Amino acid sequence: MPIATVNPATGETLQTFEALGPEGIEVRLAAADEAARKSRGTGFAERARLMERAAELLEEDLDEIARTVTTEMGKPLAAARAEAAKCARAMRWYARHAEELLADEHPAEADVRDSGARAARVVYRPLGVVLAVMPWNFPLWQVVRFAAPALMAGNVGLLKHASNVPRTALYLEELFRRAGWPRGCFQTLLVGSGAIEGILRDPRVAAATLTGSEPAGRSVAAVAGDEVKKTVLELGGSDPYVVLPSADVARAARTAVTARTQNNGQSCIAAKRFIVHRDVHDEFAARFTEGMAALRVGDPMADGTDIGPLSSERGRADLEELVDDAVRLGASALCGGRRPEGLDRGWFYEPTVLTGVTPRMRIHREEAFGPVASLYRVDDLDEAVALANDTPFGLSSNLWTRDEEEQRRFVRDIEAGGVYVNGMTASHPALPFGGVKRSGYGRELSGHGIREFCNATTVWYGAEP
């Protein structure tokens, strides 16, 4: 795939970039290695000062970088602004909390006395150079939620961003440079996917993190496993959205529209399978379908646009194949199911609600990466949980009920990295984020995320000589 900015609203190629060759990669690896050695010795106060400055600059650049993001991947301009603002907040959160999150731990003397120690502690030290392989759908947020904790912990970052967001990738490198981070602390590598293995195998690279597709995650994990290097993977999701009889159905349906169509429906944590108790199914279906059909599809730069284009022609084709397969096997589209009229340029697709989805259909098992929802009817909570877990993914989940016992059982039985009760899934710096099963492993954000790329070092003190 060429490294290029292609406007998904028009299909126009705006700029192409030459991939780094071996010499260019080596220069950046050498700079990262040198920066990692120096960064270990910096204090939290200095890192926090630099991270706060990066947040300030990002806020100053908010309108400009939002336009860049929208131009490269198609999300509505308002959503791009919100993403940039969220990144600045996360930078500040880690600037202000990293020191306490990585504070030394001191086991009680009584607990370690039988080890022969007069004292012991655990200290968190950075691993070094971390390679980040990041996707296009949240081209700022996905990077910052890695970079902010990694840099605050004393690591340095090498970013291999998706090939269709090169301007955003270069902006991020420049942002940290302008903020004053030393040379080599955060660098963008404009390379194709074929270069990842060689970079990851380089002994100067200590670990890797990847957000993306399951095949990409398998590939990076295999190489890292062969090299015995730490990885964190956040892969696909097919999140369930369960609505039970005691729920506020009107509110659940309104929220469901946003939960399915955020980021033009191109989000791993977007709700995709709507599992509704038969007692409230028809009301929910009517409200949900009405809300989906009312969304305005169009120019993502224009005020009032709810849904922009999908990021690529291939992405739209993949989504169409899933919908067409479901309809061919008996599903019905309550709304949408086609390309919108009057938008002949660009890669647009109508918000769609499918009913009558069965296990025979690909969309029952595969992730629909676009504004397409699958609607199911169930008889009780047990059936809802069984259906929710009937997926190879386990990223997050949503439950709507006022019944506390139903909430307790759902939290106990669901196979997912998150449970959001009477609300929709959203990431937040203070809360760990990640999945189980084929949605990956490890955690981003919170204290769990900053410690993923640290060495928990035991320090043991014997008796005085």
TrEMBL record:
Pfam families: Aldedh
The organism's place on the tree of life at top rank: Bacteria
Keyword Oxidoreductase: yes
Keywords: NADP, Oxidoreductase
Residues of the Aldehyde dehydrogenase domain: 3-459
Keyword Repeat carried by entry: no
Listed NCBIfam families: PRK09406.1
Family: Belongs to the aldehyde dehydrogenase family.
Name the UniProt record assigns to this protein: NADP-dependent succinic semialdehyde dehydrogenase
